[in-house]
Amino acid sequence: MSSKGRNSLLITALLLISLFFAAFPTGADAEKRKFKMSIEEVTIEVHPQLTYTVFGFNGQVPGPLIHVAEGDTVEIEVKNLTSLPHTVHWHGIYNTWENDGVPNVTQTDIKPGDSFTYKFVADPTGSLWYHCHVSVNEHVAYRGMWGPLIVDPKETAPIIKKLKPNKEYIMMFSSYASGWAEKPGFGGLPDDVPDYFAMNGRAFPNTQPIRVEEGDVLRFRLYGAGGETHSLHTHGHHFTVTHKDGFPLPAPYKADTISVAPGERYDIVFEANNPGRFIVHDHVDVHVTNKGKYPGGPITIIEYEGIQREDDWYAWKDKVYDSNYFYQQSLEEGYGLFNHDGHKGDPVKKKRSKRPKRKRSK
Ligand SMILES: [Cu+2]
Question: Is residue 213 located within the same domain as residue 307?
């Protein structure tokens, strides 16, 4: 055979092989994914007037985004670097009981300095999450011990195929009672009155805008991460509620306000079709205050490209923009565990305790 003939035979063979793999996926899409997380005691600036001590996964609030595909085998080693015990519950996962993360029910708590490795298969799909299950009234409600776990389905839900969102945002709601800010290990009592309310751990103006172009289709994944019910309202836009707790709704419905109770998740989708600047906020009126002062709390603003932001009265005219505050960029980076520097806290400044002077005995 001529070398020309051999070459064309080789090319045909390669073409056939690649066609075969394109037509018949090999089943290699269910991956084994191994991650490591630490739990760290840090402080975050919730608001210029409120610095709060938290137990952050990888030292941040929200914790890192864990993004996997349906059927993946996930293994996560969690190391506790704080001075109190914790566990991790994988909220929404059809888990084995030994990996469910409940102290004194499925495991002993993870003591300071110790580690525990959780294993599960990513099933079912959707907007799931993880959180501590020790002293949840304090650790989950006030100390930021939660993060998003997104499991992509093999088959996209019909409503998502129809609406085709091209930008996704994770919004986790919680609150703080400022009296417990510097007292980790305490707080979360029935008579607490939370006085700061937050979206991804921070209260307006420390929250961030959502910058869009006309024609973008936005998907918000809303989480009731703390102890309060929040009621999200979008000005200038109504949305379609597509998922509840990760499950696609049999009958998606339209709304402009949606209540998100503790533990719940809703996915909502809408088109950016009304250029301007529009507030998106918690409609529980007392929540849009910081220590009783309006405006504050869970507020963001949809800012369209092409709309100037220079009005000197505009609250965010000088905003230092963090484009990954809602994990919008991380969500586009495929699968893995994604930290975000903007969510990281600072090391706790230990107050110097004066040591009592020892009396020297001669
Ligand atoms: Cu904990």
Answer: yes
pLDDT of residue 26: 43
Q: Is 150 in the same domain as 170?
A: no
The pLDDT value recorded for residue 31 is 96
Split into its structural domains, the chain has a count of 2
Taking all residues of the chain, what is their mean pLDDT, rounded to a whole number? 93
Q: Residue 291 is which amino acid?
A: K
175 pLDDT more than 50: yes
Taking the centre of ligand 1 as the mean of its atom positions, its distance from the CA of residue 135, in whole angstroms, is 6
Expressed in angstroms and rounded, the spacing between residue 85 Cα and the centre of ligand 1 is 6
Domain containing residue 105: CATH number: 2.60.40.420
Instruction: Evaluate the CA torsion angle 178, 183, 184, 188 in order and state its sign.
Output: negative
CA of 66 to the centre of ligand 1 (A): 19
Q: Is the domain of 187 the same as that of 321?
A: yes
One domain for residues 225 and 214: yes
From the CA of 109, how far away is ligand 1's center (Å)?
9
Burial tier of 94 (Cβ tally within 10 Å: 0-12, 13-18, 19+): exposed
- How far, in Å, from the CA of 144 to the mean position of ligand 1? 9
Q: Which of 64, 243, 226, 213 is nearest to 138 (CA)?
A: 226
Report whether pLDDT(255) > 80. Answer: yes
- Ligand 1 centroid–CA 36 distance in Å is 17
